[in-house]
Design a protein that fits this description.
4-stranded mixed β-sheet, 4-stranded antiparallel β-sheet, mainly beta
Amino acid sequence: MKKYIPFIVLFGIIPWTLPAQKVQHIIKLWQDSICVEYHVEQIDSITFEAIVEPVVGEFSIASNKKVAFAPGNLQYIPASDTWLFAANQYDYIGTRNMAGSTFADTIDLFAWSTDTDPSTAWGVTLEDNNDLFAGNFVDWGTAIDDGNTWRTLTANEWEYLRASRKNAKQLIGIGAVNGTNGIILLPDNWVAPEGITFKSGYSSQEYSYTAFAEHQSFTEEQWNLMQSAGAVFLPCAGFRLGSSLAYMQLGGLYWTASPHAAYGPRFASYFLFMCDGAGVGYDLRSGGNAVRLIKDL
């Protein structure tokens, strides 16, 4: 499987006039703050990639373990076998995951990833035979080759983050960011940027699209300040059942790395939130849910 996440290489073409008036071109490449110069004639090709940095906040997922979140939901481009992260934390693909009865150009709703059958690898499948998903979990993080070690949170880690870390209730709340509904997770040592007020908790309404923005709403500029202070946003990316899509802007279902043994090998656990609450639930493994990876600190 092709693994790809780009890292940035800065360069410039600099004309250099020699005494003989012959013009040569030099390319400067920086890596790890070291500059190396090459004459254009020495270079056959240059590959440009971009280093992906996690969100700066630190989040406790156990009494002795902290993580940082990926900068956006996981995405996949089938045609080029390319894995990447959404450009913004509030981005999600939604109904554009499907082009009729087949996957669209880019997708972000995946079945649970297992090693049972080649057709279920990474969850990039519309297969609804849950017997094909009965094997061991294969972490999406191993598909990202960018120098970071990404992985998927377990169900217990999500629960600790949501409810057991210090001041847990004050560090989570629904809201809308740049017009997108979702849930906001604040880092352990949250300090609100100047001019930002965060309202923790949930709405008293049920199954409501409007309750998120009514609870609190942030512009793109306000969110940039919050993100710089370590805040994480999970959009209401909805879910997929076969080729059918639902729940966009109404709820978020994010896969965990945990099977749900009590209900047999056809089920796995997810982190679920709606306007009125959040917690860990379970679903058939063939269902298409969102994925947000983390990096251990």
